[in-house]
Amino acid sequence: MDIHNFIELALLTLTPALELRASIPYGILLAKLAWPEVLAVVVAVNAILGIALFLALGWLVRISTRVRFIKDIYMKIVARTQRKASPLVERYGTIGIALFIGIPLPGSGVWTGALAAYLLGMKFRKFLIADIIGVLIAAAAVTALSLGLLNGF
């Protein structure tokens, strides 16, 4: 894998709503890269993204919500995230956030998982565990699907 491929995979993985749900199929099916290399890059980038987001959220929220327009958008995202994630976290705790991150559906992933954990007051160590488990769940599911498509099931 050359640096160009690495950058493409990393940028797709960092993109909200796409994350590894887009970068794994792109790397395997379109760029025709070896799946172990694709998996290594996107899992690392996605897990690090979750950690960075969780650590930066307090500061980002304080700064960005000073602007009314951004605050309105943020409040809508907060309401949706709490509605989706709260039942999972209340019932399953850390594993609930891991499932929220890991289930490859629209509106889930590390962006919303980090926000949900932050909003629900999860401690960093628990989020770290949830982040890694969730990213691995999502990566396994999307890789299996991508390889199945590549090989015609």
UniProtKB/TrEMBL annotation:
Q: Where are the transmembrane segments?
A: 38-61, 92-121, 127-150
List UniProt keywords, sorted A-Z.
Membrane, Transmembrane, Transmembrane helix
- InterPro entries hit by this protein: Sm_multidrug_ex
Q: Which domain of life is it from?
A: Archaea
The identity of this protein, by name, is Small multi-drug export protein
